Each structure stands twice: as C-alpha cells, then as structure tokens.
Amino acid sequence: MSNPPARPDTVSEEEWANNLSEPAAYSGEAPDSSREKEVSQRDGTVLARFREILLRTGDLDWVDKTLAGLSHKMLWRNDETGASIALVRFEKGSGIPDRHSHASNQFMFCLSGRYTYVPTEFTLIPGSFYWNPKGSLHGPTFAEEETVLLEIYDGPHYPTQPSWYSSPEDAR
Q1: Under a CB-based contact definition with an 8 Å cutoff, are residues 134 and 160 in contact?
Q2: Strands (E) located in 8-69
Q3: Sign (positive/negative) of CA torsion 135, 168, 41, 36?
Q4: Surface-to-core class of residue 28, CB atoms within 10 Å of its CB (0-12 exposed, 13-18 middle, 19+ buried)
C-alpha cells in the first residue's frame, strides 16, 4: 500500500478522516496505488477504501494483450462484478477476428481512428458511441487506421475465454 496523500489545507481533518469510499474491490492503474485503508472481510478477502482518484492517461503505458495489435490502459475495474473502464488501442489492420458476444453490456466511445464492424459495416469514428447489448453477436472487426476507444463493461466481459486470447487475463 502506498503512502496516503497529505490532507489539503482546504479540507477539514474531520472531512478528510471520513471521506473514504465503502470497502470495495477495485483495480486498474490508480486504485492499486490509491488505497487509503485496507479492510478484511470475514472470509479473509481484503478490500480497500479510496478517496478521489485522478488518472492522467498520458502518463500510463499501453499494455499489450495476447491478440496482435491490441493494447489497453485499464483505468478501473470492479473485481467483484467484472465491470471495467479502459482505453483500448487497435493498430491499423488489427481487430477482433471472430463473431462473439459478451456476458454484459459493452459501451464504446471512439476517441480517434476508424474501427469497423465487418458484417454490419458500422464504423466508429471520433465522437461515435457504440452500445453492444449483453448477448448480442457482433464482429469480426477491423481497424482501418490506428484507433483508440474508451470501452466500458457493466459486468464481466465474456461468458468464456475467447479463442483469440492465450491469456485468461486478457478476457477479464
């Protein structure tokens, strides 16, 4: 656990002491270094309490997934539910190779590039919002140019590990 941040002069000691989240199992880039207090549950599971968290995504490294041309910056994940928020980047010419569905709703907002869902010819361009309802078949996909998407899941990503990932971590 990292050193907690100092209390700002503009926040009272009482507010600072009480302004912590409920115990939660969050992970991602900042939560691991933003744990203010660990809380052990009866079953031994260790959760944490957090304060406000600010990420500067330009300071984070892209992490390659086992599918060639795909990398991500995991911003937040609820480890209990599987819900997550990440930036995902597809290199030009890459994409998801097979038709598939998700175990929860998938939401994507295109920040840059051109990303096409091949069968439907839906193309995400900057400013596009895409919602893929839980269980809906979609894909394969193709990045016509390098594309960065903000991707949000309201639960677990996949019902089973997709064949294009050799690591179960990539399917979380």
Answers
A1: no
A2: 26-27, 35-40, 46-50, 63-64
A3: negative
A4: buried
SS3 153: strand
Residue 170: count of CB within 10 angstroms of its CB: 19
* HSE value, Cβ hemisphere, 13 Å, CA-based, for 123: 8
**Strand runs labelled E in the chain:** 26-27, 35-40, 46-50, 63-64, 70-78, 84-90, 106-117, 122-124, 129-132, 141-153
Six-digit token string for 90: 């597809």
User: By C-alpha distance, which of 114, 149, 158 is closest to 131?
Assistant: 149
Question: CA quadruple 156, 157, 162, 166: dihedral positive or negative?
Answer: negative
What is the pTM (predicted TM-score) of this model?
0.87
CA–CA dist 108, 148 (Å, integer): 10
Helix and strand numbers, DSSP H then E, in the chain: 1, 10
Per-residue pLDDT tens over the stretch 51-82:
888 889 999 999 999 999 999 999 999 989 99
Supply the DSSP string of 79-116, one letter for each residue: TTT--EEEEEEE-TT----S-B--SS-EEEEEEEEEEE
* Euclidean distance between CA atoms 151 and 115, whole angstroms: 13
